[in-house]
């Protein structure tokens, strides 16, 4: 701004003269005789007074009028026109009148009067102080100007002074760079925004007598706007944030627009404030405001909003992403979005206790160099930013072939014939075992499945069993499981030593053998038809044997499961007479066999000659119904014992021996011929009986010969030879 002054008109004139008025020791002295004031201003009128000694002042006041006939003039403080605007100040021999809010009607001559305690002790100062108003004005052209324009200030008054006054200019009650001009004009060119304010003027020497203020308005566009961010500290996701744009402008900014800097300005929001009620991470960025009024526009510097937030739910990646096989290398990587970035990753594995996880690692990665099957499970990645945390889980499924394979047996206790036993194959594998194979004594069993149901049939089911478990990642055999089937003795037999002829006086040892599980723990020897046992133990030895020791012997084998008897073994003690009788009996038997065979042949021929008399059709039907029948010659040696002895043990019976002779008759017919020879042992101890029997069986359809037609089964012939037994002395 530059200041220039022009003109020569005096605006304010002030007389300041001290007047002393008095006589005979009485007097009033005013500090000024005339004073010029401005409307609505305040003025102080002061004076001093004196009076003769011996008097005491009882009353002091100011007045402007003394009504005719009135004893005293009107006290100005009691005048309604000055109510509330007049104040007296007094001190020793001095008095001041203060009038505020001066009005044009206040123009008058003001006099001071005091009264003492003596009659006639009254006095007024004449003449008084004349109060006049002046039209001391400040003209401004224009009162509103755009920045860079021109303003002229002119100071005027209605009273004229007879000398060249100097003018003082004021802005906002302070002198404008202390300019003093000899002219009443001040020019501001070019006007700056700082030139705006309240202006007034005065005359040097009467600095307190200033013109009324006149306001200069300087219009200008927005100064550089500033953006205030509240709160000013850390901005947390979800909190309330306010951006406030402010700019110095005259007139004030009437248009605010907010922008967020991305690749280009975006988001247009109006108003001096932009409020985020619940700020989000996506609100992070640079913001600036645009301001404008009719005199200009401006843009603020950008302010950066950094929205902090705790870790987002982490994501976990697995490498390799395909199936995880035991022994391979596996890498788990945890990542999480956070602001500020995650400063701590911690890995946990779910434990058996669901409320207590197992810490396994720290850091964004968890590496299994050689992953194991027991590494299968749920893993947690926890991401921390300060005290804020978030987590996610991932399941690791380790694939592996069968391991820890075992076979369990469902039956506890003694396994006996008829029992049902289940063998169950157990194995850890992932995926589960797809195929089970069972082996017994290293031979594959026709069985599949995790369980093998075995019904015990006998000792042949005993053995070592194992299972093979297989999946796509491998196979493994279990350890052997021995199934021990317990069974009572069987295949019990007796051997004789020596095995040849037993002569009187020699020694014979009988040995019992039996198959049993558990092994036989007790052998008992018996002689047929003798109730009490002969001996115990696996071997039974007879020394100095005699003929009365002859007979059938057997042993009984016993274990914890049961017992079993052997077949009979015949001990024949041979003496001299016995040998002769045996030879005779043998010759007799041979002769009888020859006779019987000849008799059978004769019978056969008779039957053939009689056959021709039958009807051929009948003969043909009969022939068709007959089988080709062989001719048997049966020779057996059977012990003739009591029924009880025969039924005691079917295993003790001896076998029959058969000899067959086939005859081929003419035509299509065969006639069977049976010959049975039986040798029986004596019922009594003192003798032996030999039997020979010949039996003819003739077909019912063929007429029997005379030899075969008897009522009492004439087809059986018996021949008996008795051999006396020598009793031992």
From TrEMBL:
Residue ranges of the TM segments: 578-604
Matches recorded under SUPFAM superfamilies: Immunoglobulin
Q: Where is this region: Disordered?
A: 613-645
Enumerate the PROSITE patterns for this protein: IG_LIKE (PS50835)
Specify whether Signal is a keyword of the entry. yes
| Residue ranges constituting the Ig-like domain according to the UniProt record | 127-217, 225-306, 314-397, 402-483, 489-574
InterPro entries in the record, alphabetically? Ig-like_dom, Ig-like_dom_sf, Ig-like_fold, Ig_sub, Ig_sub2
Q: Where is the signal peptide?
A: 1-22
Q: Is Hydrolase set as a keyword in this record?
A: no
Q: Name one Pfam family in it.
A: Ig_3
Q: Which residues form a coiled coil?
A: none
What UniProt keywords are attached to this protein's entry?
Membrane, Signal, Transmembrane, Transmembrane helix
Q: Which CDD domains match?
A: Ig
Q: Where is the composition biased (Polar residues)?
A: 634-645
How is this protein named in the record?
Ig-like domain-containing protein
């Amino acid at each position: 701004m530059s200041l220039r002054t022009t003109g020569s008109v005096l605006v304010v004139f002030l007389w300041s003269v001290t007047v002393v008025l008095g006589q005979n020791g009485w007097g009033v002295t005013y500090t000024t005789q005339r004073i010029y004031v401005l409307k609505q201003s305040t003025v102080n009128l002061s004076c001093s007074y004196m009076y003769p000694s011996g008097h005491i002042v009882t009353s002091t006041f100011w007045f402007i009028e003394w009504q005719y006939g009135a004893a005293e003039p009107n006290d100005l403080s009691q005048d309604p026109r000055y109510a509330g605007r007049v104040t007296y100040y007094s001190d020793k021999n001095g008095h001041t009148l203060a009038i505020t809010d001066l009005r044009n009607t206040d123009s008058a001559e003001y006099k001071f009067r005091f009264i003492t305690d003596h009659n006639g002790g009254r006095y007024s100062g004449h003449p008084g102080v004349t109060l006049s108003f002046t039209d001391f004005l400040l003209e401004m052209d224009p009162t509103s100007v755009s920045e860079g324009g021109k303003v002229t200030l002119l100071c005027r008054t209605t009273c004229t002074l007879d000398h060249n006054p100097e003018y003082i200019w004021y802005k906002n009650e302070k002198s404008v760079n202390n300019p003093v001009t000899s002219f009443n004009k001040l020019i501001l060119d070019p006007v700056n925004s700082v030139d705006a304010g309240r202006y007034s003027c005065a005359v040097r020497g009467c600095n307190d007598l200033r013109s009324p203020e006149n306001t200069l308005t300087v219009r200008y566009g927005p100064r550089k706007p500033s953006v205030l961010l509240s709160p000013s500290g850390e901005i947390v996701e979800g909190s309330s944030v306010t951006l406030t744009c402010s700019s110095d402008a005259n007139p004030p900014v009437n248009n605010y627009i907010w922008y967020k800097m991305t690749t280009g300005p975006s988001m247009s929001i109006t108003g001096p404030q932009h409020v985020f009620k619940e700020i989000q991470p996506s609100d992070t960025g640079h913001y600036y405001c645009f301001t404008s009024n009719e005199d200009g526009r401006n843009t603020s510097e950008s302010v950066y909003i950094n929205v902090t937030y705790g870790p987002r739910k982490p994501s976990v990646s697995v490498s390799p992403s395909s199936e995880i096989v035991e022994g391979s290398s596996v890498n788990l990587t945890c990542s999480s979005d956070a602001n500020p970035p995650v400063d701590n990753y911690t890995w946990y594995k779910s434990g058996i206790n669901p409320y207590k996880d197992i810490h396994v690692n720290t850091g964004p990665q968890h590496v299994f160099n050689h992953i194991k099957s027991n590494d299968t499970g749920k893993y947690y990645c926890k991401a921390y930013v300060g005290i804020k945390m978030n987590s996610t889980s991932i399941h690791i499924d380790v694939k592996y072939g069968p391991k820890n394979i075992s076979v369990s047996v469902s039956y506890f206790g003694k396994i006996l014939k008829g029992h049902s036993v289940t063998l169950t194959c157990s194995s850890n594998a992932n995926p589960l075992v797809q195929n089970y194979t069972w082996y017994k004594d290293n031979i594959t069993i026709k069985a599949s499945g995790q369980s093998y149901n075995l019904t015990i049939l006998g000792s042949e089911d005993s053995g070592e069993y194992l299972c093979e478990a297989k999946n796509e990642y491998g196979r493994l055999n279990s350890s052997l499981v021995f199934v021990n089937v317990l069974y009572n003795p069987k295949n019990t037999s007796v051997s004789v030593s020596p095995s040849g002829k037993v002569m009187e006086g020699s020694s014979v040892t009988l040995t019992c053998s039996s198959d049993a599980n558990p092994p036989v723990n007790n052998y008992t020897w018996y002689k047929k038809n003798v109730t009490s046992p002969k001996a115990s133990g696996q071997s039974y030895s007879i020394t100095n044997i005699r003929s009365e020791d002859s007979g059938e012997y057997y042993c009984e084998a016993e274990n914890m499961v049961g017992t079993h008897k052997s077949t009979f073994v015949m001990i024949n003690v041979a003496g001299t007479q016995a040998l002769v009788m045996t030879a005779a009996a043998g010759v007799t038997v041979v002769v009888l066999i020859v006779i019987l065979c000849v008799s059978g042949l004769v019978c056969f021929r008779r039957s053939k000659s009689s056959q021709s008399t039958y009807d051929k059709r009948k003969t043909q039907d009969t022939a068709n119904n007959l089988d080709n029948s062989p001719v048997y010659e049966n020779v057996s040696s059977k012990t003739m014992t009591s029924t009880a002895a025969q039924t005691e043990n079917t295993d003790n019976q001896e076998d029959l021996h058969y000899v067959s002779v086939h005859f081929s008759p003419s035509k299509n017919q065969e006639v069977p011929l049976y010959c049975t020879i039986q040798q029986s042992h004596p019922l009594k101890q003192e003798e032996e009986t030999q039997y020979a029997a010949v039996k003819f069986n003739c077909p019912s359809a063929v007429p029997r010969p005379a030899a075969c037609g008897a009522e009492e089964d004439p087809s059986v012939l018996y021949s008996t030879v008795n051999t006396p037994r020598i009793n031992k002395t």
